[in-house]
Amino acid sequence: MRSVPIAPAPTPWAFPHHSTWDPDDDLVALGADLEAGTLVTAYAAGLFPMPVTLDGDEQLGWFSPVERGVLPLDGMRVPRSLRRSARDFEIRIDTAFDEVVAQCGRTDRPDGWITPDFKQAYGRLHRLGWAHSVEAWRDGRLAGGLYGVAVGGLFAGESMFHHERDASKVALLALVDLLQDQHAAHRVLDVQWQTPHLASLGVVSRPRAEYLEALERALRVPLPDALRMDD
User: Fold this and answer.
1) If both were cysteines, with which of 27, 88, 102, 162 could 168 make a disulfide (CB 3.0 to 4.6 Å apart)?
2) Quick count: other Cβ atoms within 10 Å of Cβ 73?
């Protein structure tokens, strides 16, 4: 049997309406918390959290990039070498979520932002069925993977890692494949910001307003079967 995610307790926080957001600033709001209800509400509104330091004080920031990084499901660049590499890995879903987050949040990674509080928060979200990992395994070892949040037809990618060449790309390819169902035209695979590395994989930049319109459509779409919880 499959079921939808478990509804979290409602958030006591109210995020500002997108009509009030600064059109030139990725940072939309400060404060609130990382409880499951707050996170689900934020992602459904087009926001995601990251810690920010302002005037020497670390705070919880909520972002909606003016130019949003999105990977079109029919736009991932998959060279033949990557298809060959994919045959060397076993793909698993949600079998090592905490380990994937831990690897993504290693302190030796540059520009690390996944604090213990974030790890705990996404662990709670995972246990409720909202956060998921896509993992590339080889020879019984976790070689790479990614994690993110799924709300209806939105998959908001948070971070990925690899211990072996191409392992994280193979996990991303697997995610794209599992999102390719009868609702694929309305699904959104969000990666926050376009970087040169992500652009090489096919990630494009979309204006905030365009992203929010696509998000509204995506939220009406059910989760793909592979991301539904087992009863």
Assistant:
1) 162
2) 19
Q: What is the pTM of this model?
A: 0.95
Q: What mean pLDDT is predicted for residues 158-177? A: 96
Domain 68-230 CATH class label: alpha beta
Structurally, at CATH architecture level, domain 2-66 sits in: 2-Layer Sandwich (3.30)
CATH 3.30.70.3550 positions along the chain are 2-66
CB 48 within 8 A of CB 62: yes
CATH code 3.40.630.70 region(s) in the chain:
68-230
C-alpha closest to that of 45 among 30, 58, 63, 70: 63
d(CA 155, CA 100): 16
CA-atom Rg of the chain in angstroms: 17
Where does the pLDDT of residue 166 fall: very low under 50, low under 70, confident under 90, or very high at 90 and above? very high
Q: What share of the chain is helix, strand, coil (3-state, %, to 5)?
A: 30, 30, 40
pLDDT of residue 1: 43
Look at residues 231, 13, 24 and name the one whose alpha carbon lies nearest to residue 129: 231
